[in-house]
Amino acid sequence: xPGWRQLRRVRVRNLSTRTLRLRVGVLRRGFPAADxxxxxxxxxxxxxxxxxxxxxxxxxxxxxxxxGPPVEGALVLRPPAGRDLRVPFAIPFGSRRTILxxxxxxxxxxxxxxxxxxxxxxxxxxxxxxxxxxxxxxxVERLDLVLFTGTGKRIGVIARLRTLLPGRYAFGITxxxxxxxxxxxxxxxxxxxxxxxGGGPVTRTTLPFTIR
Length: 212
Fold this sequence. Notes:
Blueprint: E1 4-13, E2 20-29, E3 37-41, E4 44-47, E5 52-61, E6 71-78, E7 85-91, E8 101-106, E9 110-111, E10 119-125, E11 127-131, E12 134-138, E13 140-149, E14 154-164, E15 167-173, E16 186-196, E17 203-211
Parallel strand pairs: 9-17
Antiparallel strand pairs: 1-5, 2-4, 2-6, 3-5, 6-7, 8-10, 10-15, 11-12, 13-14, 13-16, 16-17
């Protein structure tokens, strides 16, 4: 959206036995589809052994592109001697609404609770796409498997996974609640909630099933 702005904080800890005096900068590379202003503060950081400091990275894009190459670069921490430390970043352009879950299904929609022969949940998570001639990887930052009753009452999260790269995944649904207790016979709903990296609209898919 026009006037897009984000603030991120990076925590840096000194694990050495010497005091570190670092210069802080931003390195840009490539030819992004839209210009961005990126700043890092403070410009200098002094860390005693075992201590940590916070670096604020602010990014703004006045006129984002609808698609095309992202803004790419790195936060650079430069000591007086030795190698630089670089923390990469990227600001992608494109539709805010990205479908991160596809082809989700249960191998059995009616089954008895079982730890040895569960119903298998299979799904496609994340997305690979080409925008403006550039390949883009859109992973899932967090995937929640949330259990509901058949009438829509939330029972709780039965599984949570983080940082899923695009690909096919499978999970065993054993017929147990978040506390590990066997579900009583009846109708239930399993809601899959995929959260994109960097925020934005989540993708939800709901699968009904019945416990015998």
